[in-house]
Structures are given as structure tokens and as C-alpha cells.
Amino acid sequence: MPERDGYIAGVPCWIDTTQPDPDAAASFYTGLFGWEFENAMPAGEPAKYLVGRIRGGDVAAISSQWEGAPPEAVWNTYIWVDDADESATKAREAGGSTVGEPVDVAEAGRMAVLADPEGAVFSVWQAREHKGARVVNEHGALNFNILKTDDLELAKQFYGAVFGWTTLDLGSGQFWAMSAYGDYLEDRTPGTRAQAAEFGAPGFEDVVAAIAPLGGDAGASWNVTFGTEDADAMAAKAMELGGTVVVPPVDAPYSRFTVLRDPQGARFTASAFVPENKDVGRAA
Questions:
Q1: The domain containing residue 32 runs over which residues?
Q2: Is residue 6 one of the residues assigned to a domain?
């Protein structure tokens, strides 16, 4: 899988997890995904920002808990923007709120932590030196970001106003989409649109994130999905390393996935691409 070198505005580009014990979390994710870590914080800083890598390419990070962060461990989604300050203003005007005001992160970029009207927290990232995840859509790397919402119409209004997202219904689920992203992917890899159509999912190349109902969750939230070669093996490995299986491996359209929780409580999904599951969950 070729490495990424940046994104376009409106596309999720990075993830990290805030953890009470970053080193313990690093041991878990090293065992689970094979990540190698480097602390990006300057020497002498008590806080840690451990960047996880595959083949030397940035995948995700594990962070000490920053002031004001929720006490439990959680995975965080970052969305690429051209101007973090402008995006924060748009979010407030659209009914959202600012959890963390726009701030420079050394030479890496500028970010703001925001919440949508239902309280789902996400960050916007105005890149400088740090161009987001360089390895994606493979085993142990970010595969999808998913918004869990109880009010889809409200979410459509908010994310449409802030990022220009529209929704795409593929019969088995709803997704956030931008035609500009499909154009971008087609330019990078000619034939992307034709391949999506061949798989029976025309328009999927425009998808930037997924949408799911809340179910039994406490509130609206952004969630992350990692690619895996084997969801069943991943669930077994997570338990061996001290994690918890929240949802046992189950078949879904084009995939087989499991929902896991790391030892400090951060929830995430591991999903294997299974082409023969194409019609799972579709109406007859």
C-alpha cells in the first residue's frame, strides 16, 4: 500500500489516544499491531506523545492526558483543514462548541478541539510539518473514522456547514462523502472510481467517514477502525494482552469486524476486508 503524504480539507487525517499510562498503552498496541514508537516530546518534558509507526511511516499516537481531557482513555479523530481558526468559528456558528481553542503544536501544525451539537468531540488539523497518517488501510493502520449519532439530520446540518460533507446511502449503511475526495483519489490512483463501481459500491470513492446509530452507547462520539487481516485472531490477541472484546467478531458488508477495548478503556474496531461478504445485511 503506497504511503500517504497529506490530505485534502475535510478528510480525517490522524488519530491519537489519550491514556493515563502511555507506556502501558504502547506495550498493548505493539503487541496487537506491531507498532514501533518514538516519543515526539522534547527531552525533559513530563508528558509523552508516542508516535506509532509501521515500516517507519506514522500510523497513530499515544498521548499523556492533557488538561481538560476526559479521565478515561479514548481514541481521537483529527480532520484536515486549511485554517483551524476558521473551522472553529464555523463549528460554533453551526451550533457546535470549542473544547480546546486553536493552538500551535510547535512546527507540526495548528489544531483546535471541537464538539458537534450532540457533543461528539473531534479535532481539526492545519498541517505544517506533520502531514497526518502516512500508512493507512492495511493491517494495524487506520481504516475508517465513524460518527455515532442519535440525530442524523442535525449531524448533516453541522458537518455540511463545517466541512461541506454530504451523505451517501449504499444500502447497507450511511456515509459522509465529498466528491472532491473522489477526484483526489482518482488523480492519485487512476481507476479508483471504476474499481468502486466494480465492487458494487459506486460513489464509495467519495466517502470520507462512516455513520452509525448510537445503539446502547452513552452519547454521540467519533470512533476509529483499524484494518486487520483476521478479526477473530485480533480479538483473541487483544484478550491475551489484557484487552476486552466488546463485540465478538461478526460478518458485515464487505468485512468481518470486532469491537475491542484496550486495558485502559479506549474502545476501537478492527475490521478485515472480506469481498465475499458483499451482500451481508443488504435487503433481499
A1: 12-127
A2: no
User: How much is the pTM?
Assistant: 0.93
Same domain, 110 and 234: no
Angle between helices 22-33 and 231-240 (to 10 degrees): 140
Could you tell me the CATH number of the domain that includes residue 38? Answer: 3.10.180.10
Examine the fold and report which residue of 77, 104, 127 is the final residue of a domain before the chain moves on. 127
Question: What is the SS3 string spanning 246-277?
Answer: EEEEEEECCEEEEEEECCCCCEEEEEEECHHH
**82 is written with which cell numbers?**
486549511
Task: Per residue of the chain (284 residues), give pLDDT as tens.
Answer: 457 889 999 999 999 999 999 999 999 999 999 999 999 988 888 899 999 999 999 999 999 987 766 678 999 999 999 999 999 999 999 999 999 999 999 899 999 999 999 999 999 999 999 999 999 999 999 999 999 999 999 999 999 999 999 999 877 678 999 999 988 888 888 888 888 777 777 778 899 999 998 876 678 999 999 999 999 999 999 999 999 999 999 998 888 999 999 999 999 999 999 878 777 765 44
